[in-house]
Design goal:
It comes from Cupressus gigantea. The chain has about 725 residues and is mainly alpha-helical. The protein is built from 26 helices and eight strands. β1 and β2 form a beta hairpin.
Length: about 725
């Protein structure tokens, strides 16, 4: 095997006898000896005339005899054989071909007439040489088909020469008659020679040959015979190429031994990468378009590529399918007949419908997407409440100290004991613990340039490097736990991994992390609100408690507004829009496009693609958590509570005691390092100072958030909804 011009393509070696026995190919006629002497006794070269061998010069004969001798030599020259009075030699230029010369002593009228026919002989030599060289394996199927067609044309040409010779032997052919019979083919042969010379000079192969034939045929608008011949050549030369195309669009197989097809396959990209790498390019680059697409297929190239890709997915799924094929569906390229385009469209529609039907019905795509929505978008959050209650202690640990196996068992328990147990795919849900906060993860993804943070230019220019440094500083200053790093994962099998790839799952995880932490902050604030309700009427807590009630209510309002915005104003409407569009999709590419658009829109409207705004939201949540943790100072020890509770009206004592005891136990369990505090009169001033600090910080951050939302809402109207829901929080404290 020898190496081809195309990297990675091998071809059989041409046997040595093909070059060692030049008589088999006619190469002997091209090897002109320097001495000018040709083997045999037929004739002598032009050098003989120069040396003055007048006894053999044609000029010694009468014009009538000269005409017979010239016709005989011309018939030989028309088949590439040197004559006695018409010799051939190579041109002076390095790459020039064979040129024929006549005896200078020939009658001038005969010379003039003979020279008109000599270009036909020279063009024959060029075409013949091209046919012999391009028949070698290394030049590819298109060149083989092209050379075979030229060889057929030359056979017809040889038959014509034989007929002329027969007429000459019968004494019925004059030099003028020879010129008359040669004239009709002069234009066609010249057109073929032009194509051949361009193909040889540029060493063209594959689609480049087809494009050359198409262009030359179009340029021959004034010569119907030449144009018709080139169109016929293009049809036959493209037969091998269309054979490769047939297997691709009808079977999804690239049968391209010489690398001529315009679709390339990268076998290093495996489908397993879709579930392992966020930057996996399997669907985009496993099969891709190469330069040099035939001009007659240029407008259908993407359709052809997609058709084969769909058939490949079906085959990878073990789904044996082949596009219905008949003799009428055979791809041909003949002149103005463009039936092959119709065949390509039929194959595309069939492959697209088969794959879409397979994924939507056999693999139940919509049920999978609904399952993802239940868990990652908290559509059915009862399992989450149960999980957060049982996994509270484990999630309170540092990420490195968390047992993922324990979290997984608690998650499975929560799934089995909630409405999620009715989901047939709930066993595919798993959990994981990230090592960084949400802000740091988003910033890292943006720096890596993996397409996860496609911020618009305006957002990037407004935030700049300051946001990145603030994010890093904030992440370093905050001690994160499992509550900030917990996330879900999902097991996806082929071919659903085309739609639910690792990149898509990462987008789901980012949205889930935001929602999960919001739910956690909201639960903590609800516990704080319950603690406030349990202290109503306890006079020993002082008058500052009323200000804490207001601050807690404002924080709750902020979190409830945020969660309501994320779920009911962003996720739900966009989900329904996506579902409606998926009902009308006609291909898997449209499904992937609509699904990716849904996730990208949700990411953007959920503030994940606005680092400056997201940073302010995270800061507000951090303040809320710190405030909830500090409220335990408001709850006195059990002894104090008992003594104060005895003073409560007897009609309310039972209820008050139950609330206070539950609140005390809950807060002690959540803040064990600060358990059993005793409220003293001196603590009121400390609490007042702390409360004022929380109020000031919360108000400042809230005003900054509302201003940021209002500024961006002019170009991003959806931000105005959240800004309106938060209006007043920055002024009422």
């Amino acid at each position: 095997m020898s190496k081809s011009y195309i990297e990675g393509v091998s071809y059989p070696t041409t046997p040595d006898w093909d070059t060692e026995r030049p008589f088999l190919t006619g190469q002997i006629y091209l090897d002109i000896k320097v001495t000018g002497q040709r083997t045999g006794s037929k004739s002598s070269s032009i050098d003989t005339f120069k040396n003055g061998d007048v006894n053999r010069a044609i000029g010694i004969f009468t014009p009538s005899v000269q005409e017979l001798l010239v016709i005989d030599d011309l018939l030989f020259a028309m088949t590439g054989i040197e004559g006695m009075y018409i010799s051939m030699k190579r041109g002076r230029a390095k790459d020039s071909g064979i040129v024929f010369q006549v005896d200078a002593s020939m009658d001038l009228a005969l010379q003039e007439l003979a020279k008109r026919i000599l270009p036909l002989c020279e063009n024959y030599m060029v075409i013949h040489s091209f046919v012999e060289s391009r028949s070698h394996f290394k030049h590819g199927l298109v060149n083989h088909a092209f050379a075979a067609t030229l060889r057929t044309i030359l056979q017809d040409y040889h038959a014509m020469v034989a007929q002329l010779e027969h007429q000459f032997r019968l004494g019925r052919l004059s030099l003028q008659g020879l010129w008359f019979f040669c004239q009709p083919m002069m234009g066609a042969i010249q057109a073929l020679t032009t194509v051949v010379q361009k193909a040889s000079a540029q060493n063209l192969s594959g689609s480049a040959i087809l494009n050359l034939l198409q262009n030359q045929a179009a340029a021959m608008a004034g010569d119907n015979a030449a144009r018709s011949l080139l169109e016929k050549l293009s049809q036959y030369a493209s037969a091998a190429y269309l054979g490769i195309l047939e297997r691709w669009v009808y079977e999804g197989v690239i049968d391209d031994p010489y690398g001529e097809f315009f679709i390339a396959e990268d076998k290093t990209l495996q489908k397993e990468s879709l579930t392992e790498d966020c930057n996996a390019k399997y669907w985009q680059q496993r099969y891709s378009l190469k330069p040099g697409i035939p001009s007659f297929l240029l407008n259908s190239a993407e359709t052809i590529l997609t058709t084969g890709k769909y058939l490949n997915v079906l085959r990878e799924c073990g789904h044996s399918v082949q596009v219905p094929f008949s003799e009428n569906a055979k791809l041909t390229n003949s002149g103005s007949d463009r039936r092959y385009l119709e065949c390509i469209n039929i194959a595309y529609n069939f492959a697209s419908a088969e794959l879409l039907n397979l994924i939507t019905h056999k693999y139940d795509l919509m049920a999978r997407l609904r399952s993802m929505k239940h868990y990652f978008l908290l559509d059915q959050g009862d399992f989450l409440v149960h999980f957060m209650d049982t996994a509270r202690d484990e999630l309170a640990k540092k990420p490195a100290a968390i047992s993922v196996e324990k979290l997984q068992s608690l998650l499975d328990l929560a799934l089995r004991t909630s409405i999620a147990a009715t989901d047939p795919f709930h066993e595919d849900l798993t959990c994981c613990v990230e090592r960084t906060s949400l802000l740091v993860q988003m910033d890292t993804m943006k720096k890596m340039g993996n397409g996860m943070s496609d911020l618009n230019t305006e957002a990037e220019s407004l935030e700049g490097d300051k946001s990145n440094s603030d994010i890093s500083n904030q992440s370093d200053s905050i001690s994160i736990t499992g509550l900030e790093t917990f996330s879900l994962d999902y097991k996806v099998q082929w071919p659903l991994s085309l739609i639910l790839s690792k990149k898509v799952l990462t987008k789901y995880q980012l949205i889930f992390r935001l929602l999960f932490h919001c739910k956690h902050v909201q639960r903590e604030l609800c516990g704080t609100w319950q603690a406030h309700q349990g202290t109503r009427g306890v006079k020993s807590l002082g008058t500052t408690i009323s200000g804490s009630y207001v601050l807690c209510q404002n924080m709750l309002h902020f979190m409830q507004s945020l969660v309501h915005y994320l779920t009911f104003e962003v996720l739900e409407p966009n989900w329904h829009v996506m579902c409606d569009k998926l009902q009308n999709t006609e291909s898997i590419d449209e499904v992937m496009q609509q699904h990716d658009f849904f996730l990208s829109k949700c990411q953007k409207e959920c503030l994940l693609l606005w680092p400056e705004i997201l940073q302010k939201v995270e800061k507000l949540k951090s303040i809320c958590l710190q405030y909830a943790a500090a409220i335990h100072w408001l709850i006195p020890s059990v002894s104090v509570l008992d003594s104060d509770a005895s003073k409560i009206n007897s009609s309310e004592s039972v209820v008050r005691k139950e609330i206070l005891n539950k609140t005390t136990n809950r807060i002690r369990s959540r803040h064990r390092p600060l358990a059993n505090p005793v409220w003293r009169s001196s603590d009121e001033e400390t609490f007042k100072t702390t409360l004022e600090k929380f109020e000031e910080e919360f108000t400042e951050q809230m005003k900054g958030l509302i201003i940021a939302l209002s500024c961006r809402s002019q170009s991003e109207p959806y931000l105005a909804h959240l800004a309106q829901g938060l209006q007043g929080l920055g002024n009422n404290l």
